[in-house]
């Protein structure tokens, strides 16, 4: 019986150190989603539902792999504050075909790993793109 307990405890210790090492080695990346507003594309309600199913499936896959930390979809409008006088303008701020539609924060070892995660982006077929940026961690 002690053999099983010893083996179980060793597995727990190895798992703990693996998780700690993963935290040290892995980096956070922001996947920024660029593309047209679905409404502007004229998608039917059925097409919208199908599209959202693809997003949910991709999110589920990333969660099961333990690589997604969070993210959200963004409304197409917004406000921008600029300059010394804090001038406020209404958005969107770029051409509609390059609208920032949302983002995910994912964990990967490097840009290649983040690009592999981005392969699941469901809107490539609609001309969408993913911009990948490494998150800077400031030590305080």
Helix content: 40-55%
CATH topology: Alpha-Beta Plaits
Count of DSSP helices? Answer: 4
- Uncertain runs with pLDDT below 50, 5 residues or more? none
Q: Class in CATH? A: Alpha Beta
Explain what you see:
The protein is an alpha+beta fold. It has a single domain (26-134), classed as Alpha-Beta Plaits (2-Layer Sandwich). The chain has helices at 2-25, 38-41, 45-65, 111-118; strands spanning 27-35, 68-73, 79-82, 87-90, 99-108, 129-134. The strands form two sheets. It has a four-stranded antiparallel beta sheet with strand order 2-5-1-6. The radius of gyration is 20 Å and the shape is extended.
Provide the descriptors you would attach to this structure in a database record.
single chain, 140 residues, alpha+beta, Alpha-Beta Plaits, four-stranded antiparallel beta sheet, two-stranded antiparallel sheet, 6 strands, 41% helix, 28% strand
Question: What is this structure, in a nutshell?
Answer:
The protein has four helices and six strands, in the order αβααββββαβ.
Task: Please give the structural blueprint.
Blueprint: H1 2-25, E1 27-35, H2 38-41, H3 45-65, E2 68-73, E3 79-82, E4 87-90, E5 99-108, H4 111-118, E6 129-134
Antiparallel strand pairs: 1-5, 1-6, 2-5, 3-4
């Amino acid at each position: 019986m002690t053999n099983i307990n010893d083996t179980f405890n060793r597995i727990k210790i190895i798992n703990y150190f693996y998780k700690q090492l993963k935290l040290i080695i892995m980096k956070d990346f922001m996947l920024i989603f660029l593309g047209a507003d679905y409404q502007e594309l004229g998608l039917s309600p059925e097409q919208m539902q199908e599209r959202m199913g693809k997003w949910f499936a991709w999110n589920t896959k990333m969660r099961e792999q333990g690589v997604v930390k969070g993210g959200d979809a963004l409304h197409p409008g917004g406000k921008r504050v600029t300059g010394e006088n804090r001038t406020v303008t209404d958005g969107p701020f770029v051409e509609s075909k390059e609208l920032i539609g949302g983002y995910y924060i994912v964990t990967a070892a490097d840009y290649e790993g983040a690009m592999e995660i981005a392969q699941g982006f469901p809107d490539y077929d609609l001309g969408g793109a993913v911009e990948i940026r490494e998150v800077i961690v400031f030590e305080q």
